[in-house]
Design a protein that fits this description.
The complex is a heterotrimer of chains A (185), B (562) and C (344). With 185 residues, chain A is mainly alpha-helical. Chain A is built from nine helices and no strands. In chain A, helix 2 runs antiparallel to helix 6 and helix 6 packs antiparallel against helix 8. The radius of gyration of chain A is 21 Å and the shape is elongated. Chain B folds into three domains: 170 residues, no CATH class; 180 residues, Up-down Bundle (Glutathione S-transferase Yfyf (Class Pi), Chain A, domain 2), CATH 1.20.1050; 125 residues, Rossmann fold. Chain B is 46% helix and 4% strand. The C terminus of chain B is likely disordered. Chain C is mainly alpha-helical. Chain C has 13 helices and four strands. Chain C has a two-stranded antiparallel sheet. In chain C, strand 1 and strand 2 form a beta hairpin. The chains are: A mainly alpha (185), B mainly alpha (562), C mainly alpha (344). Chains B and C meet through helix 3, helix 4, helix 6, helix 7 and helix 9 of B and helix 2, strand 1, helix 8, helix 9 and helix 12 of C.
Chain lengths: 185, 562, 344
């Protein structure tokens, strides 16, 4: 019986390339080349981060999906997209795109295994993990957005900190837990 | 934010949010929340005698431009082409080689092609060609020329208030074309139409009439500084009595007012107070010239001059010998490259001479104004400060070069010299992100408003990315700088991108390390009121066993014992 | 679109003299009148632009500082990147104009997985640019052979160096004997190659293509065609140099005279394209040749704290004086114990 994990591993390079293209294609056409070609981590933090973290996410997906382990990788991609010009659906939609990329990459194998249930079942499992990943990405996206609003509120206070403090109109706000990690599934 | 939801097939294709390769002249900016700053308040603009003050909203179609707006813009351009060689030459000689394209932090963070410096300049250059040059008039778009329309004005507003005048592109341009110069002039012209952002316009008005950006009246300004003295007394154990508007003082001290009221600027301010007290410096604050910053620089040359005037005027009135300036980026670009030209000559002042070391600051013999960091560097060099670096051991520091002091001044080694003398753990960020190639905080030139946070975070990404690198590699937990806008803007930037890294002014690290006669035996808390041992624990260091203190010694001692 | 327009324009520029000379026999027009007009336009146009620039004021001293400024005496100054004196500015300008210092700065550091940081560089633009400009210069100098008699020594030396590597390149001749190729000047070939690379760069890199206008495509294409026609004349058609020189010398002597021997139509195309380039020069971005010298971010000494820079139009503006300020806040100031000029 064909093993999906093996197949994906064998084709990981193509899959990652297509997945990366798909994410990068959400940027203005003129800049796509810049994001793709500029290898420098400091001159091109967007392209570089996406490239690096996407690979880590994919490796994670191959073996299962541990929310805690995968979150930091997804976080670094989504954190960037949360401050760029995207609707929430666009900001996290790239995760779901992986399903099509994988199906395309495995088109031949899937056809060959049309009758046998094994590979398809594994693929269904894999796709469920992708769906779950999308939900994780969405949680992170929301956490990033919330963070922005918190920072916004905090900034106003910081900016006039001494004035507010002196006027005694600053009421201490209890420290809150970082909302980054939603409760375990 | 775009509102359409992508269809699955669109996801597979890529969510391209712009049709490919349309001519850039045919695309329009979309004013989305988070990506632009609010327009200036009518009262603020009127307070400065600005033209065409009105209520208007960038998201609406009608910007209520004055009737003859086209004539005003054209005349404004013509006038400035005549008055500024920089502008005329920069309009004429760009060869669009693209060397600058990926040097802008806003381009790097957004991928928006109009954030490439060359295209930002072309936004104006295309009008210059299309309205003033024959080929452009006849051939139009083919020759890169276009006509002035309301859409062009909107585009200017969007993109020239998305440039922080950081000059990074200018470093790489083979002709030294400086987008800051073009942005400065574009903003002047937008101002002619009453188009200004509130984050610039309101501080300008407050600074002009009241003395500082927040509009703190004299007594409030004084009280704010006095309030900091309480903190110093509590955490350091020394009592300080600074003077205000005192005639006959040797030195006038001017710093950006953000240091007086903003967190973490106030800790830098406390540090100045501590340092000057330590030295016994004969200096005074001024409530009239209580703003080092100059948002006029982001408005127009005339406004810059009107605000900057107070420094020399006040130094003359008070009869001081010279002026000492606090840590600030754009303030120092103005002081260095503009002040003496605009409001000099400062013949009423003397060539600055450090009363502590006797050093004469020949490099400032015309402006008569010295940077607190070079002043401190000279003190250290001459062994006048008793410094205990280990007091900063819980900090692993990296240095952020501010755009203005790096590329509009060349102030690179002085702060590093000071830094190396006050901390043991200092790591540089990668070469191409520091010194003259430093990345902007993303909030300079008056763009550190609250409403455009996403824009600032995208623009600050390259800076944050380099900080993250040294944070991961060396455990950096403190980002030091000499700029009030940096202090205000880098903190939220770090909170978002690299939450483990804090932000401080250089002087704060100096004050931390300074062994002060009469300080309390156990300086167990820093200027921020944080327990040093907590910070040491976080940094994986042994706690310090503080000596017994009179009142709270018991408590500190207990913590120290562990 | 602007590219196609430029290509059409250059093609037309090739066809005009071709038709003009071969069909209408307008040799006098293309060999004499046009070159004179072009040179006149060039001289007047360039002088006008440069004078206009140099007469415009420099209100502020705004060098872009790319290194440590002169400060405390024990801190090392980076004189060339942050000039503190006139000689230092001259040094900076020399590096900028002759070695393209700023483009050279285009270094990149490549960071690969793991803690290793590798330094690479992206100096292609710098290299192509430098090759392009210097080979252009050498080509121009070599052409002085056509306008001087006797040919000055230094022109001959440049020519000698330029052809050094290819000299005596043995090729089998028609009768089996080895004969040398006519001296292949490297400069012409390098010029063509570098211009082509700069052109391809503009096509291939999406961002650069996006910002390109006709004013970018046109001169590049024009120069490529000029180089091509030159190379064809020299190596393929082997145009009679002596006859050409008769014409060019008569132009220099201001006694224009078309030589009796016929000159290839290719010469007329070449000289027409060159004339057009000269005439086009002052109106185009090619003026960066003059502008680079006048760029205020590069050619000023960074000493504005030491020496007052004068703005010839320093504007009169209204200030908010201390007296007005005290009038506004006197009572509060007195109450807060802040000294005042006038008691309430």
């Amino acid at each position: 019986m064909a093993n999906l994990q093996e197949l994906l591993k064998a084709k990981s390079e193509t899959i990652l390339e297509h997945w990366f293209d798909l994410i990068i294609a959400t940027y203005p056409a003129e800049s796509v080349q810049y994001f793709k070609r500029t290898k420098d981590a400091f001159q091109n933090p967007v392209g570089h981060t996406i490239h690096r973290e996407m690979k880590a996410v994919f490796d994670e997906l191959l073996t299962g999906l541990d929310r805690e382990r995968v979150s930091p990788f997804v976080d670094r991609i989504v954190r960037i997209r949360a401050v760029q010009d995207y609707a929430p659906s666009q900001a996290v939609g790239f995760v779901l795109g992986l399903k099509q990329v994988v199906r395309k990459a495995l088109a031949k194998e899937l056809e060959a295994a049309a009758g046998a249930r094994g590979l398809l079942d594994q693929l269904t499992d894999f796709e469920s993990r992708v769906d779950e990943l999308a939900l994780i990405a969405f949680d992170i996206y929301m956490a990033c957005r919330q963070k922005i609003y918190e920072i916004q509120a905090q900034e106003v206070k910081s900016m006039y900190y001494n004035v507010l403090r002196r006027a005694d109109i600053l009421c201490p706000i209890p420290e809150q837990e970082e909302p980054d990690m939603p409760p375990e599934k | 934010m775009a509102t359409q939801t992508p269809k699955p097939q669109e996801i597979a294709k890529g969510l391209s949010h712009q049709p490919p390769s349309e001519n850039w002249m045919d695309t329009k900016p979309e004013f989305r929340s988070g990506m632009y700053c609010h327009p200036v308040k009518v009262a603020s603009l009127e307070g400065m005698g600005g033209a065409f003050a009105r209520e208007w909203n960038p998201t609406e179609a009608d910007w209520k431009l004055p009737a003859d707006w086209k004539g005003i813009v054209k005349d404004g351009l013509k006038d400035r082409l005549r008055r500024f060689r920089s502008f005329q030459v920069f309009m004429d000689i760009c060869v669009r080689c693209g060397a600058c394209a990926d040097k802008c932090h806003f381009f790097i963070g957004t991928g928006d092609p109009k954030n490439m410096p060359v295209l930002r300049a072309e936004l104006i250059r295309s009008i210059y060609r299309g309205e003033f040059r024959t080929a452009g008039k006849i051939l139009g778009k083919l020759a890169g020329g276009r006509k002035l329309t309301e859409e062009v004005i909107k585009e200017w507003f969007y993109y020239f208030f998305q440039c922080t005048e950081c000059r990074r592109c200018s470093v790489f341009c083979p002709y030294g074309i400086d987008t800051a110069e073009i942005t400065i002039i574009a903003r002047e012209i937008l101002n002619l139409l009453g188009l200004q952002i509130d984050w610039i316009g309101t501080p300008v008005n407050a600074c002009y009439h009241v003395g500082n950006h927040l509009g703190l009246k004299p007594h409030t300004f004084k009280e704010n500084i006095e309030y900091l003295l309480g903190d110093i007394e509590e955490n350091v154990g020394i009592t300080i009595e600074p003077s205000f508007n005192r005639k006959g003082a040797e030195i006038l001290f001017v710093t950006p007012s953000g240091d007086v009221f903003a967190d973490p600027g106030i800790f830098t301010c406390m540090s100045y107070l501590i340092l000057f007290e330590y030295l016994g410096l004969d200096y005074t604050w001024s409530t009239y010239a209580s703003e080092g910053g100059n948002f006029g620089f982001f408005t127009s040359n005339e406004t810059m001059k009107r605000l900057n005037y107070k420094m020399y005027a006040e130094s003359k009135r008070l009869g001081v010998k010279w002026i000492l300036g606090g840590e600030c980026g754009h303030m120092w670009r103005v002081v260095h490259q503009y002040m003496d030209t605009m409001n000099g000559p400062a013949d009423h002042l003397e060539v600055p001479r450090s009363p502590i070391t006797g050093t004469v600051f020949e490099n400032a013999k015309s402006t008569k104004m010295v940077h607190v960091t070079e002043f401190t560097a000279d003190l250290i060099k001459n062994g006048k400060l008793n410094l205990d670096k280990s007091r900063n051991d819980h900090y692993t520091v990296t240095w952020h070069d501010s755009c203005n002091t790096s590329r509009g001044f060349g102030f690179l080694e002085e702060p590093r010299y000071v830094l190396r003398n006050v901390v043991n753990n200092f790591y540089e960020m990668p070469d191409q992100t520091i010194r003259e190639q430093t990345f902007c905080c993303g909030s300079g030139s008056g763009l550190n408003a609250g409403e455009n946070l996403e824009q600032r975070f995208r623009g600050g990404l390259p800076r944050a990315n380099a900080v993250q690198f040294v944070h991961e590699k060396h455990g950096v937990n403190m980002l030091a700088n000499i700029c009030a806008i940096d202090r205000a803007a880098l903190k939220p930037l770090m909170d978002y991108w690299v939450p483990a890294v804090n932000v401080c002014g250089l002087s704060e690290l100096v004050a931390n390390a300074l062994v002060i006669p009469g300080e309390k035996a156990a300086r167990s808390t820093n200027l921020r009121g944080e327990e040093i041992n907590d910070l040491r624990e976080e940094a994986g260091l042994e706690p310090i066993e503080w000596p017994e203190e009179d009142e709270e010694g018991g408590e500190a001692g207990e913590e120290g014992e562990e | 679109m602007s590219f196609i327009f430029s290509l059409v324009a250059v093609t037309v520029l090739v066809l005009v003299p071709l038709v003009g000379v071969t069909v209408a026999d307008l040799r006098w027009l293309f060999g004499v009148v046009v070159p004179y007009a072009a040179v006149a336009t060039f001289l007047i146009g360039v002088s006008y632009r440069v004078l206009k620039w140099s007469n415009s004021p420099v209100p502020f001293r705004i060098p872009t500082t790319c290194g440590q400024a002169k400060g405390l005496p024990w801190i090392k100054t980076n004189k060339l990147d942050n000039p503190c004196s006139l000689p230092a500015v001259i040094g900076r300008m020399f590096l900028e104009v002759f070695l393209f210092r700023s483009l050279f700065r285009n270094t990149r550091m490549e960071y690969h997985q793991g803690p290793k940081v590798r330094y690479g560089s992206s100096k292609w633009l710098w290299l192509f640019g430098l090759l392009f400009h210097y080979s252009f210069l050498v080509v121009l100098i070599r052409h002085l052979r056509f306008f001087t008699e006797p040919v000055p020594m230094w022109v001959q030396i440049v020519e000698h160096i330029d052809t050094f590597f290819e000299m005596g390149l043995p090729l089998p001749g028609p009768d089996g004997l080895y004969v040398g190729l006519p001296l292949l000047a490297q400069s012409g070939v390098i010029l063509l190659a570098a211009a082509t690379l700069l052109f391809l760069r503009r096509v291939v890199i999406a961002q650069v293509r996006y910002i390109s206008i006709a004013g970018d495509w046109f001169p590049l294409l024009l120069i490529i065609f000029i180089a091509k026609t030159g190379i064809i004349m020299r190596y393929v058609l082997k145009v009679d140099v002596v006859t050409v020189k008769k014409l060019t010398m008569s132009l220099v002597a201001l006694k224009p005279e078309l030589p009796a021997d016929p000159i290839s139509f290719m010469f007329y195309i070449h000289i027409f394209l060159v004339s057009f380039l000269f005439a086009y020069f002052p109106f185009s971005k090619l003026m960066h040749l003059g502008g680079v010298w006048l760029s205020p971010t590069r050619n000023l000494v960074n000493n504005s704290r030491e020496k007052r820079h004068i703005n010839p139009w320093n504007p009169e503006v209204k200030f908010h004086t201390y007296a007005e300020y005290e009038d506004d806040f006197r009572e509060q100031m007195i109450e807060a114990g802040i000294p005042v000029e006038k008691e309430a």
